[in-house]
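Supplementary Methods. Inverse-folding protocol.

Structures were first reduced to a discrete structure-token string of length 238. This string, shown here, constituted the complete conditioning input.
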């Protein structure tokens, strides 16, 4: 009996010592080492890839897309459709599935795609203006019409065939921070007109903020909308 008690006490003691050692190694030393290395080698990424404006104020993360809309005409009307602020470069359509009360400008709590098939609402495989309301085709047709109307100016007419796919469809997360160089270029004339800038200035701005394929072969060329708009704000002084 005494031997059994002694063996049990010895095993419990060994277990507690192992628990203490592993807690110190895995719960204290390892997290501190990883955090230290991350801060030393990847400081920007470890802190959320924060994007700052000219004054040094954090305005968002380069990893998370956000919208640039005008304030609601009636703040009490939750069903009021958002109106794009045409002074800024616009991101991809956002169909995030959640919302939050802290930053109501875009959805962050949940995100996701529409989960609709590419031919949802299509007739004989083609999206038309007669697409049933609520279908993916209806959303794409409406978004395309809005892109053409918003970005056509007195001296520049957007042609339907020039509207790229990312201008009318959301990403898998619904919070894509990037757009294609083609979509950015399509917005140049409107942004220049709204901010009273020369078109060539805005074209250079887009060129300076266009990132090529990762390692030269992965992904597609892209433009980070938040970083582009921060640079636009500095250029226009708005």
């Amino acid at each position: 009996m005494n031997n059994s008690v002694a063996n049990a006490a010895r095993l419990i003691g060994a277990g507690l010592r192992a628990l203490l050692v592993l807690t110190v190694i895995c719960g204290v030393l390892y997290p501190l080492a990883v955090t230290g290395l991350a801060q030393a080698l990847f400081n920007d990424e470890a802190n959320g890839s924060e994007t700052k404006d000219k004054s040094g104020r954090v305005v968002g993360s380069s990893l998370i897309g956000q919208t640039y809309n005008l304030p609601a005409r009636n703040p009490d009307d939750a069903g009021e459709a958002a109106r794009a602020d045409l002074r800024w470069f616009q991101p991809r359509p956002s169909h995030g599935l959640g919302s939050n009360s802290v930053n109501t400008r875009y959805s962050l709590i949940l995100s996701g795609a529409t989960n609709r098939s590419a031919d949802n609402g299509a007739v004989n495989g083609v999206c038309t203006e007669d697409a049933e309301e609520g279908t993916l085709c209806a959303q794409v047709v409406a978004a395309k019409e809005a892109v053409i109307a918003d970005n056509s100016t007195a001296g520049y007419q957007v042609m339907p065939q020039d509207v790229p796919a990312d201008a009318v469809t959301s990403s898998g997360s619904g919070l894509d921070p990037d757009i294609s160089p083609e979509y950015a270029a399509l917005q140049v004339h409107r942004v220049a007109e709204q901010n009273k800038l020369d078109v060539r200035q805005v074209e250079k701005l887009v060129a300076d903020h266009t990132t090529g394929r990762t390692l030269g072969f992965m992904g597609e060329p892209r433009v980070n909308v938040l970083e582009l708009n921060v640079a636009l704000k500095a250029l226009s002084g708005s």
